[in-house]
Design goal:
five-stranded mixed sheet, about 300 residues, transcription, D-Maltodextrin-Binding Protein, domain 2, transcription regulation, 14 strands, 3 domains, WH-like_DNA-bd_sf, Arc Repressor Mutant, subunit A, about 25% strand, WH_DNA-bd_sf, alpha/beta, LysR family transcriptional regulator
Length: about 300
Amino acid sequence: MDRLEAMRILLAAVDTGSLSAASRQLHIPLATVSRRVSELEEHLRARLLLRGTRKLTLTDAGRDYVASCRRILEDLVEAERTATGEYRAPQGELIISAPLVIGRTHVVPVLVEFLQAYPEIRARIQLSDRVSNMLEEQVDVAIRLGELPDSDIIATRVGLISRVLCASPGYLASHGAPEKPHDLVSHDCITYEGYSAADRWEFRFDRTSQLIQVASRLTVNLAEAAVIAAIAGAGIARVLSDQIAEPLKSGALVRLLQAFEPTPMPASLVYPRQRHVPLKLRAFLDFATPRLRQRLGYESA
């Protein structure tokens, strides 16, 4: 049994809440995930997990062992970084995670500039609207949207992103423009499965927020698909402001119900809390933070 692999699988199961979720995240068959955890329990002669119907629960022994596993894997990463000289000069591979549109539009151009300035650094960027598990996926730094839960990560705000409603001039000419959020019940709405409640949209009324049920005729699983459908006249979409900057400028889309938009979400550069920040990461943070703030209109931060 490869104990380090088993530890990583165990941590993935604990962090995602189930063996099946760990299987999907790690791209390992579910039977392998279950077998590795069982082998680890047999090796330790202790039950680590209680496998319920809804979620996993750690035993007392499991809680202590998981905490130790995290320290061991963090020490291993730090030992490898020390051996490769990452604490002596900015060098090595930098792994970055970012949402699709922000990553493509803003992070990639900044990253290209950064690599030109630091020839000893290589980079891998993962563009996905899925929130990565930074420790398990060995991500050095990520862009996260929204308020961040209390956790062992360090965050630096680089922008504010609004959730906005938009539609094409052609759709509005045929159907009219909504004057208030409740009018959306009589409109064709384009919903996005990436949100927890795709057909319940948040709006701000004075100082309170309220979820409004909308009438969805088209549901997509990619935010860019919602933008394309809105431009084509399929209905009203709710997307992030950075996703429609160009269509708004060109007139392909019109922003709606701006007075009712919820409070903008922060966009932050985040990285795991660690005893020593590798120089490659420190160099990227110092280089990228002011440039991303400028690109996202957050220069006064």
